[in-house]
Give the backbone structure.
Amino acid sequence: MGGVRMARSSGSSASGWAVGFVLFAGIMMIMSGVFEALAGFAGILEDKFYVVTSDYAYEFDATTWGWIHLVVGIIVAAAGVGVMSGRLWARVIGVVVASVSAVANFFFIPYYPFWSVLLIALDVFVIWALCVYGREEAQSSFR
């Protein structure tokens, strides 16, 4: 079980760690997408759910944040499913959507600081894991 290796076209091999990182990234994308969508529902259904700090430069209405998080969450979760199926398009969309999620959570810091910083860190890890993983590994590891 340990030491799983897969051949790359360049002759080197990708470790099981690379496969594990992408699997973890896909699972984290699904989980964070669902959590983000649930946070979006909370903002849409209850306008006073988010507590806003005073004098923040990037202040939006809570309902607007709800819709932003709902849409981003659904797209992140769908891309996570695609990443776990080994699709190249899903990895590209995953990097783009994780970047958008990180920026959205930066603007969301005054509402939920710890949660926002945690999601930014997870988004950065997801972006890294999706960028270092090769196409050959993706196609051969999730069949």
